[in-house]
Design brief:
The complex is a heterodimer of chains A (114) and B (108). Chain A has 114 residues and is an all-beta fold. Chain A contains no helices and eleven strands. Chain A is globular, with a radius of gyration of 13 Å. Chain B is 0% helix and 56% strand. In chain B, strands 2, 4, 5, 9, 10 and 11 form a six-stranded mixed β-sheet that branches. Chain B has a five-stranded antiparallel β-sheet with strand order 1-3-8-7-6, with no helix packed on it. In chain B, strand 6 and strand 7 form a beta hairpin. The chains are: A mainly beta (114), B mainly beta (108).
């Protein structure tokens, strides 16, 4: 069965370190998204991609970067981790064009920056 | 002002009650309207989606969209303890935006 997987599931890192969260989907979806989820804010879009070599900033992109070298993967990099980036991160993918409907989510990565 | 507003609750109801969850939005470019359900420590999963104004029913769940008022609702009939979860509204145009989520508890 097709799926979307995130790794690691849990990560503790120190302030200032570079961290990369992995996202891999086997749906063959063009669209991939990264969200962070914080209490009181719900899911906020960090970056998204509509295909290979395409990346776009979301509403909370500062301090994060992504690259899309193939259809299956969209890794999220925190350039210099900050305590404000402690959060649960979700990767998602969807099939359709720019009008996204059903998005399939990974299980999430719980990141703690100390 | 957030593009999508959703009361975070929490909301607690007895088993069998009718639950009403709501969201408002400000961006007229949104064309698809969705409800996701998220169980604790899991990723969200799509519950229902609709494109046009009006009602869409799926079993005990009814999604309602009023584009003129920029208001969407999810109704759950005969609520069950297994419905206890966080419900997030979502809307998409060029990308997808989510509400903050409403935490629902259905007590036996």
């Amino acid at each position: 069965d097709a799926e979307i997987t995130q790794s690691p599931r849990h990560k503790i890192t120190e302030t200032g370190r570079q961290v990369t969260l992995a996202c891999h989907q086997t749906w063959n979806h063009n669209n991939m998204f990264w969200y962070r989820q914080d209490l009181g804010h719900g899911l906020r879009l960090i970056h998204y991609s509509y295909g290979v070599q395409d990346t776009n900033k979301g509403e909370v992109s500062d301090g994060y970067s992504v690259s899309r070298s193939n259809t299956e993967d969209l890794p999220l990099t925190l350039e210099s981790a900050a305590s404000s980036q402690t959060s649960v991160y979700f990767c998602a993918s969807s099939e359709r064009g720019q009008l996204s409907t059903e998005a399939f989510f990974g299980q999430g990565t719980r990141l703690t920056v100390v | 002002q957030k593009e999508v507003e959703q009361d975070p609750g929490p909301l607690s109801v007895p088993e069998g009650a009718i639950v009403s969850l709501n969201c408002t939005y400000s961006n007229s470019a949104f064309q698809y309207f969705m409800w996701y359900r998220q169980y604790s420590r899991k990723g969200p999963e799509l519950l229902m989606y609709t494109y046009s104004s009006g009602n869409k029913e799926d079993g005990r769940f009814t999604a309602q969209v009023d584009k003129s008022s920029k208001y969407i609702s999810l109704f759950i009939r005969d609520s069950q303890p297994s419905d206890s979860a966080t419900y997030l509204c979502a809307m998409s145009g060029n990308d997808m935006r989510f509400g903050a989520g409403t935490r629902l508890t259905v007590k036996p």
